[in-house]
Structure formats: C-alpha cells, structure tokens
Specification:
The chain has helices at residues 5-27, 30-39, 43-46, 52-81, 85-102, 114-135, 141-146, 158-161, 183-203, 215-238, 250-261, 267-294, 301-316, 318-321, 349-374, 380-394, 406-414, 421-437, 446-461, 466-470, 475-490, 493-513, 554-573, 588-608, 626-641, 653-661, 664-667, 677-683; strands spanning 110-111, 403-404, 516-522, 528-531, 540-546, 612-617, 644-649, 673-674. α9 (183-203) crosses α15, α10 packs antiparallel against α19 (446-461) and α12 (267-294) packs across α19 (446-461). It is mostly helical. The strands form two sheets. It has a six-stranded mixed sheet with strand order 4-3-5-6-7-8. A two-stranded antiparallel sheet has the order 1-2. It contains 28 helices and eight strands.
C-alpha cells in the first residue's frame, strides 16, 4: 500500500534531521576540533610568539619581585585560613603556574585573598564543630590546622602519604578515631568544588551574571569582610586565644570574647605587634614614596619586617623565654599530588558556591582594570575556564581558594613584567624559598603576620570613601553599598553577600516599576527636549515614558498618561496670570492687554479644535512584555473613547515585530504609529 500522508511527513522530517546531522558533522572538521582544543590553552598561541630578547628580562625581574612580596603575604593568608603557613606559599605557587596555561591576561596574578581565606576558615570551623558534636569530642580540627595542640598536632603531612584526612604518626592512638578531616583537606575540597562550579559558569557563559554583583555590592562586601578579617587577626596580635565562633551574628560573640579576655593580653606579643604596625605604617606612608624615586622597584617592607622578626626571635629566644607564639615547623619537601576529598564537596557546597561567585567577581573586576590600564583584550569567557581549571588542578596540592589581587597584578608590571611568564618566575622564586629558606621561617612570630595583615587591610577599608562620592547624586547606589556592608558585618559573610545581591536586584525591579515620564517640547533646532509644559502648538502633548513597559510598570504608565492629560488640560484652560507677566519694566496696562490677547487666542484655538492630541514616545522603552503591549492597546481604546487623538512613536524593530505578530494594528491602526515625533506632529496637522 502507498504510504499515507502522515508517514510521508515523518519520513521527510527524519530525512531533514539526518541531513542536518551530516552538515553538522562536516562542519566539525579535525582542524576545527583542534582549534577548539587549542583555544582552551592560550599558552599555545602566545608562547610561540614570545619576544625573548624584549620581554625576558622584564618578566624575570617582575616575577622575582612578585615572589618577594608573596612570601609574607602568603604566610599571613595561611594564618587567616587556619592552615600550616607553608600552604600559603603553595597557594602562591601552583595557581599562578596553572594560570599561565589557561589565562588570557598578561598581568593577572592568582593567589590568596583575605576575604576568601576568611570564608575558608569559617567553613573549616563549621566542619570541625559538626565533626566534634557528632563524635562528642572537643573541637580539634582547627587546632590541628593551626598546629596549636601538643598531642593533636596534625602536621598535614598527609599530602606526603596519600591521605588527606590525618597522619597517624602525628596523633595519639586514642585520637585517631576522634580526628575528622583536617584543615587543608577541607580547604582543598572547597577549592576543587568551587573550581568545578566555575567551569560550569564558563560552559553556560555565566560571566555576564557578574553584573548582578555591582561595584557597590562588592565594595560594601569587601569593607564588611575587612571588619571580619580584623577581628580574626586581633586575637593573635594581642596574644589571645579566642574560642571558635561561627554562624549568623557570630561577630557579636567574637567582640564579647575579646572584651572578656582583654585583661589576659600577652604584653610581649602586644609590644611586637605595635612595633610591627608602626614600622609598616611609617615605612609605607613616608619612607616608601621617597625610596620609589630612588629605586626602580618597590621596596618589600613586609619582607624586611619578617627578616627582622625572625632574627630577633631566634637570637633573643622570644619563643622560649617570653612565650611568644611562632610559626613553628615549616616542611621543606615538595608536596606529592593527592586527590581532594570529594565526599566533603556535598557538605561544603554552599560555601564553595559563594567562594566561586566572589572569586569570579573579583577576578573579572581586576581583569577589567588590567584591560583598561594596559590596553589589550581579555577573553572573559576563557577567564572563567581558567579559574575553573586552576581550581581543579591546584586542589591536588595543599592549596586554599584563590583569585586575582590588585596589588599582585600591579607589582609585577611595575618592574617590567609584561607577559604570563612573570607568574612562572614568581612561582620558581617561591619554590626556592620553601626548599632552601623554609626552616628559618619557623622562628617567625605569629603576631608579626597578624600585624602585616592588619596593615594591609587599610586600602580595602578606605573603599568606604566611595560613599562620599555616591551619596550626593546616587543615593540608591549608596544605600546598596551601606546595606551590603552592614549585612556582611552584622549577619555573616556568605549570607550577607547573598542578601545584598537580592537587595540590589530588588532595587532594580522597583526602579523599573517606577520609571520617570516627561513632556517634550520643540527646541530652537527643531528637535524635541524635556519640558515641564510640553508642546506649545495645536493642543499637542508629546509624552515620553522612560523605562521598560512590563507587568510591574503598566499601572505606572496608565497613571502617567492620565496625569499628563490632566496636567495639560489644566494648563491649557487656565486663566491665571503667570507671576513673570507681572514683573519687569513694562506698564501694567500693556501686560493686561497682552494677557487678554493671549486668552482670546486660546479661546479661538479651543473653538477650532477642542480635542487633545497625544503623542506617546515609546523610543525609551527598551522592551515591552505581553502585559505592556496589552496596556498600550487598552490605554489607546480608553483615550479614543474619551475624545483624545492618540498616536505612537516607535522605531525599535523588536517592538514593531510584536505589533505585527499580534492584533495590535487591528485595534490601533497602522496610521497611528510613526517612526519619529516630527512625523507624528506633522501628520496631526500642526504647522
């Protein structure tokens, strides 16, 4: 039997699909596939074109300088995170190396960031408390990470034997069962999970979502995070051991603990901290600017302080004689790659999501700054892949979450660094420090690290000065800034950031719900500008609505049209004498005569045409949804029934397509839609 019509349609559809698959297969040639793979490795594109004679010396000097700056900063960030100080150096080594392979920015330098380190520390504290509560033991995870317990000192050498949970050789036999995942295992799991999330961001091209993390949201969050970092470091700076606090409003309890234990501050530690802070402030604010004019590179005052601190502690025996807490043992062996603990990823998902979002937002912000300052293109889509790959591969080493930093990105360029190889030389310099100078760092006082971090917070805290620029003109943006800062400080960092983003989006929705509207009047050049009164001739009102016409703003649009007509009618039929007509040097009788003539002309105009002519300028409506289009038709029908001559000015192709695809022209009519205000006014007979 011959095939039916349905069978023929099915066969035709299948044939079309097969033909489409064949065309797609032809397009995916080996050359195209190879080009796609190469695009994930930008180093294969820029390294063959590297100008060795021109760029090598600058990259070498920039990398060495960056490595010098990263030594004290990395150790200080490790202290905030709550892990062995050597892991702060690893965090400055491996991410920078992997970024060379995947990154497109010549100047971005990946490493630890104070706010991310504190987020990681909070996750470690939460996991430690949950583990201790589940096993009815005292919290030991953080003690293990900090190396403060005598019997429970987890040296985190687990990465040398393939176990990321605990090293049985460093624990008492009775404590092996009690010990949960140690600090660096949690940190690497966070890094791996956030890296996977960033890869997903790249696959769905989610870098545009960073627009929701506006500059005001991020600035307020960073200032609020600085407050958290301050209270996290004030304990070591004063020689106080404060209990673990976590969860919403934990900062209140932290301040309470600080007040309660303030009488127990350790005097030698306070003296060292105060001396370190004074040294850094004087050298950075007063000596540094003068030395910058003498030398061709910035002087690393933090490294000078570290050397002085190590020397003084070692020769004066401050650790043994005055009980000054020091960094302690610094492993000098190269870490063996170890798979992260994937079973921790589910428990850490929300913290990892927040870290992934914050790291992405900060990285993109730094990349935009670098792109603008050094005038070259950065592929932000590839940057998301770069962050993700860096996080995933670095998690096989003892590394905590990373992102770009302004200081790191600028220091290398300041002394000649011009390509990604700057990061390679920086990593090699830091690796040399670990292998050959690491043992000397065990005498470094922890209070010196805390002092370095406290002074480094100054620039971030000074971002609060942006409020002075926002408040006079952009009060809503200032409100978002303040709300982000207050929520981050008073509630918690993770939840505070999410609430701030929701609040910023809510203000955008509210502002789109209440857009402004204006009268337009003809100016001297023949164009139209905003005015309080509107068009002057022939009873025409030119009305413009500045904002999208959505379901949230349709009521506002309807009210604005009604107010516009009422205001115009009141002005047109009014018989009052304006104040300016009673002032000046002319005689009063001449003014009265001129006013009567004006009233007579208005009456004659009213006799000629008593209708109101309304021109609705839709050119400032970026988009119109279904409810908005429905409102346009309803307002037109209502106003025509009231005797108003109403026309629209539209030139957006998208909106005109919606008119064609719906019954709009059946209600309004094509002769009521124009592409310019001039055409609408001329078609209405106004000469």
């Amino acid at each position: 039997a011959p095939p039916s019509g349905a069978d023929l349609r099915v066969r035709k559809s299948l044939s079309a699909r097969v033909a489409g698959w064949k065309r797609s297969a032809k397009k995916v040639s080996p050359q195209a596939l190879m080009a796609k793979i190469v695009s994930f490795f930008p180093i294969l594109q820029w390294l063959p074109q590297y100008k060795w004679k021109v760029s090598l010396f600058g990259d070498l000097s920039g990398g060495l300088t960056m490595g010098v700056f990263n030594v004290p900063q990395g150790i200080a960030l490790a202290a905030i995170t709550g892990v062995n100080p050597v892991y702060g150096l690893y965090t400055a080594i491996f991410p920078s190396f992997f970024y060379i392979l995947f990154g497109t920015s010549k100047h971005n330098s990946l490493g630890g960031f104070a706010v991310l380190s504190l987020l990681t520390a909070k996750a470690i504290e939460r996991m430690d408390l949950e583990w201790s509560e589940a096993n009815a033991t005292a919290p030991i995870g953080m003690m293990a990470g900090l190396g403060t317990g005598s019997a429970l000192n987890l040296t985190d050498s687990a990465f040398g034997n393939g176990s990321a949970f605990y090293d049985e050789d460093s624990l008492l036999v009775d404590d092996v069962v009690k010990a949960g995942p140690n600090s660096i295992a949690i940190a690497t799991a966070l890094l791996f999970t956030s890296g996977v999330l960033q890869l997903i961001f790249g696959l769905v091209h989610a870098h545009y979502l960073t627009c929701y993390f506006s500059e005001q949201v991020m600035s307020g969050f960073i200032v609020g995070g600085v407050v958290h970092v301050f209270f996290a470091q004030i304990g070591p700076a004063l020689g106080l051991e404060l209990p673990i606090r976590n969860g919403p409003f934990y900062l209140y309890y932290r301040v309470s603990d600080l007040i309660d234990r303030f009488p127990s501050i350790h005097s030698p530690t306070v003296v060292i901290s105060a001396s370190s802070i004074v040294f850094l402030i004087i050298s950075k604010e007063f000596i540094g600017p003068w030395l910058d004019e003498v030398f061709f590179f910035p002087v690393p005052f933090e490294l000078v302080l570290v050397i002085v601190g190590i020397t003084a502690t070692n020769f004066a025996e401050l650790a043994s004689r005055h009980s000054v807490a020091v960094v302690g043992n610094m492993p000098t062996n190269f870490p063996v790659p170890t798979a992260p603990q994937l079973e921790l990823s589910f428990s850490l998902f929300w913290e990892a999501l927040c870290i992934a979002i914050v790291a992405t937002a900060i990285h993109v912000t730094v990349a935009k700054y670098v792109e603008k300052r050094y005038d070259y293109h950065i592929d932000y889509g590839q940057e998301l892949y770069a962050l993700g790959f860096v996080g995933v591969f670095s998690s096989f080493f003892p590394v905590f979450p990373v992102t770009s930093g302004f200081q790191r990105s600028v220091v290398g360029a300041a002394v000649g660094g011009s390509t990604q190889l700057t990061g390679l030389f920086s990593s090699l310099a830091l690796l040399s420090v670990i292998l050959y100078i690491g043992p000397a760092l065990e005498y470094l006082p922890k209070c010196v690290l805390a002092s370095i971090m406290l002074v480094s917070l100054k620039n971030s805290f000074l971002k609060i000065r942006e409020l002075g620029q926002l408040w006079p003109t952009f009060k809503i943006d200032a409100f978002i800034y303040i709300a982000s800062m207050v929520l981050t400080i008073c509630y918690d960092m993770v939840q505070g950031l999410l609430f701030a983003v929701v609040l910023a989006v809510a203000t955008t929705v509210l502002r789109s719900q209440w857009p402004k509207w204006h009268f337009l009047t003809e100016d001297e050049s023949g164009g139209f500008r905003e005015s309080r009164e509107g068009y002057e001739r022939g009873g025409f009102i030119v009305f413009r609505f500045d904002g999208p016409l959505l379901f949230t703003s349709v009521d506002r649009f309807t009210q604005a049209v009604n107010r516009c007509i009422a205001k115009w009618s009141k002005k047109r039929l009014g018989d009052f004498v304006p104040l300016e007509d009673l002032e000046g040097n002319e005689r009063l009788d001449e003014k009265i005569s001129r006013f009567r003539s004006k009233r007579w002309s208005r009456k004659q105009e009213k006799i000629r045409d008593d209708r109101v002519h309304l021109v609705v300028d839709c050119t400032r409506m970026p988009f119109v949804d279904y409810e908005g289009l429905r409102t346009l038709k309803k307002v037109f029908k209502d106003k025509v029934a009231e005797g108003v001559d109403m026309v629209f000015v539209v030139y957006q192709a998208d909106l005109l397509k919606k008119f064609d695809a719906t019954d709009f022209y059946q209600i309004v009519g094509r002769d009521k839609v124009f592409t310019s205000i001039e055409e609408a006014v001329e078609a209405g007979g106004v000469k």
